[in-house]
Fold this protein.
Amino acid sequence: MAENPRVAPRARFLAGPARSAGSGAFDVDAARADFPALRQRVHGRPLVYLDNAATTQKPRAVLAALRRHYVRDNANVRRGVHLLGERATAAYEGARAAVAHFVGAANAGEIVFTRGATEALNLVAQSFGRAHVGAGDEVVVSEMEHHANIVPWQMLCRAVGATLRVAPVDARGVLDEAAFAALLGARTKIVALAHVSNALGTRNPIAALAVRARAHGAIVVVDGAQAVAHAPVDVAALGCDFYAFSGHKLYGPTGVGALWGRAALLAAMPPWQGGGEMVRSVGWDEVAYEPAPYRFEAGTPPIAAAVGLAAAIAYLEGFDRAALAAHERDLLAYAADGLATVPGLRMIGEAPDKIGGHSFVLAGVHPHDVAAVLDGEGVAVRAGHHCAQPILRRFGVGATVRASFGLYNRRADVDRLIAGLAVVRRTFDP
Ligand code: PMP
């Protein structure tokens, strides 16, 4: 695909020098100081925020970028001929380039800004899907998908007469690769998989699964919502065709996310929403569309949020990612050990390769009651079905408690969680 001249270089949003590059150390206390929200007390206790899989807190760098944008550069993009319009457009296109660099895209034209992972997945289903999937074809997903990576495919399959096939997971929450492979065939048009499960924490071996899927000519769509904050993503190494994620799970603002797609696929895809900005010319009898990615961005895009997302990416890339990953691994293992000491606790999801957090149930206490008592102790966790009802049913539960970690969490936060669970047990005396 030809470089679009309107796509600005990414220089503006390149991360500064890595804070701890080469040192192999991650200073969690220094990082915590970047997040004003963490300083508050809730119900009289210092906040322990363990609901990062739902959304992350925002560092000062992101808050400052949003403020700077609204104070200085606020204008609509790609239309104004005035200076603010030029600045806003440069910032928005710079953010696109930053996202491209962040996921290892070949160029910024492969990045479509969306409202989030959900909209990105719907875009693929409605645009690529309706153009390429027909009656008798099959779409394959895994049993551990979030509803955002199930419902769009159900809608597509119902609309075109295709069939949704589901690859099972084993008792640990690991995808059954043999069963997955057995589902693939000449009818498989799309394989859509979570990079990391939000309900179990399982990381799927996307590169290996993509090789199998592509051998059958299927297109591979990856839901990266739970992966991007925790591990560097390289779409080329993953070998997928589309990659979707949300900014707000990545220390960025709500209201923005991105879809990466192979340039050749995006170029051949029809638009899915119509409106301003995605058209070159409109008459009563004809309409000419802009090329990708603009063709997929009808209306005023999330300009400020994209600028905030670029700041979040720069913030994250400012850390030594290997050191950060080691910190998060330590936290996950420390939490697993701590949770194992809690009487009556059953872990839901025990994959050897886990990322981000733990889901569990406590015998005799509803997850919502667990979360309510923990909230009273100042510990914020999520309770519910996590928009992944099929996989919870697979484990015979309707809801779990989920404690999920961000870069700013410490072992002391895990200690507060475990102490809070002791209070839960005393409260309910199960
Ligand atoms: N996929 C996964 C695995 C998720 O965890 C989430 C958010 N919970 C989504 C998709 C949807 O993300 P969003 O609501 O930001 O569109």
